[in-house]
Every structure is written in C-alpha cells, then in structure tokens.
Amino acid sequence: MGPANPRESQAPQDNTRRIGSKQDLVAGIREARRRLAADGPPRVRSGADFERVSVPVADSDVLRDLLLAEKPGTVIEIGLAYGSSALAIAEALAAAGPDEARHVIVDAYQKHFHGSGWAAIAGAGLAGLCSLVQERSQIALPRLLSDGFVADAAFVDGSHIFHNVFVDLFYLRELVRPGGLVILDDCSYPSVATAARYFEVNTGWQREPIAAPTRLRAFRLPKPRAEPDFKSFRPFGLDATG
Ligand SMILES: C[S@@+](CC[C@H](N)C(=O)[O-])C[C@H]1O[C@@H](n2cnc3c(N)ncnc32)[C@H](O)[C@@H]1O
C-alpha cells in the first residue's frame, strides 16, 4: 500500500518506476480494469460491497473520456476504495497526459478495503504515476493547498456527508487551476448535489456537458478565478433554487 505516513506521500515522484512504454502501460491499465470489473477485488469488506461503492464501468469510462479530452497533467481524486475510478483516471493520464503526469489520491480508510485499491494501482505499474494520501480529505486538502499543490482536474467520491463534500469542494475550488474541471460522482444524493449547487450558484462553476448517459456531473471552474461579493449571495439549496 502507499506510504503509512501521509506526509511521505508528498515526496517527489519517481518517474523511473513507470514500467515499459506508454502503450504497454495503457494496455496494462485496461487489463487491470477489465479484471477488476470481471472478477472483483481479492478481498471485500462484505457481501456486495464492491458493486455498492465502486463507480460502474460505464461511468468510469465517462470519467476517463472527460479526462482524455481535458489532457490534464495533474489530477487529484478523493475516494480510492477498490480502485475502479482511480484506474480509469490513470488510464487517461497514461494515455494523454505528459510524461510527468501525477495522480494524487486521497483516501482515509484504504485499510478498511484491505489495501485493495492501492494493490490494483501498484499491480498495474502505476506506483510512480499515482500517490496515496491516507488521511481525511478535509485535513489533507488544506495542507496540499499550503504546500502549493495545483491540479488541472479533480474527481470527488469520498465522504458523502454534506459538510464534508462542501469542504472538499471549498478546497478544490482553490487547488484546481482556474478553467480546470471538478467531476463528482453521486449527485443523485441531495447531500452531494446541494454542496455542488452552492459553487454553481454562487461561484461561477459551469456545468460541463457530458454526451454519454452517466451519474457523474462535471463543472468547469471560472477563469480567471472570481471571488463573489457577500452581498450577491444566492440561496443554493435544491428546494430554494430548483
Ligand atoms: C464510494 S467509495 C469510492 C469509490 C471509488 N471512487 C471507486 O470507484 O471504486 C468512498 C471512498 O471514500 C473514502 N472516504 C470516505 N470518507 C473520506 C474522507 N473524509 N476523506 C478521505 N476519504 C474518505 C472511503 O475510504 C472510500 O474509499
């Protein structure tokens, strides 16, 4: 698994650990995704947990395709679990990102998943491209911000509690560069949708059209970054704004 001490995960990335050519790496990630979807992880927390918590393959493909079009250099993801979305993000970065591409994954509870997500990442030869911060995102994101970390895109699938999602998005608004993309899973939950709605209604996040049917939602951040006047605050609850 990734570093036990979350601060270790901030260490400079070692690109020499990437295995083989770009094509080999992408082929290996695709095979890892296929195997994970077909066979599931080696260990699960309980019964149908893998199916319950993972982003489904079709939505993971949507995530990959959004990022393939975006060609980001750095992606931050919250919520590794068994690794389905992480492998899809890594596929896009390996296929279309620069040689120095980075995928920073934040997951506080990877040990509850028996390390399966990180094992899938490492097994696909991605221990160089990806790093894992084993800490609550609400603690890790402000530190990444003060460290000067900047991402081109983010994927949010961590805690679904309203105040945690809100805090994640608060920090991602600063961590993702102006004009970058924030993608969320599970906006069918009012807790997640309401948190996202604040940033759409009050901070200029624009809904990014997604051609394929999906449960994901994507937002384009304004460029340049704009700070709203407190007097222009608009109520943002789903009931209040429709
Ligand atoms: C729904 S699962 C993510 C599924 C994953 N995206 C996939 O496709 O397999 C939620 C994940 O968020 C993590 N998590 C929950 N609360 C968190 C928090 N406050 N900070 C960081 N990670 C958190 C859990 O450990 C779990 O791995």
Intertermini distance: 43 Å
Cofactors, ions, other ligands: S-adenosylmethionine
The CATH topology corresponds to Rossmann fold
The total domain count is 1
Helical/strand content category? alpha/beta
Low-confidence stretches: 1-17
CATH top level label: Alpha Beta
What proportion of the residues form beta strands (DSSP E)?
5-15%
- The overall pLDDT average reads 92
The CATH homologous superfamily is termed Vaccinia Virus protein VP39
Number of helical elements: 9
Please state the overall shape, judged from the principal axes of the Cα atoms: globular
* Biggest sheet overview: 7 strands, mixed
List the helices and strands and how they pair.
Elements: H1 22-39, H2 49-53, H3 57-70, E1 74-78, H4 84-96, E2 102-106, H5 116-123, E3 130-133, H6 137-146, E4 151-156, H7 162-175, E5 176-184, H8 190-202, E6 206-207, E7 217-220, H9 238-241
Parallel strand pairs: 1-2, 1-4, 2-3, 4-5
Antiparallel strand pairs: 5-7, 6-7
Helix pairs in contact: 1-4, 3-4, 6-7, 7-8
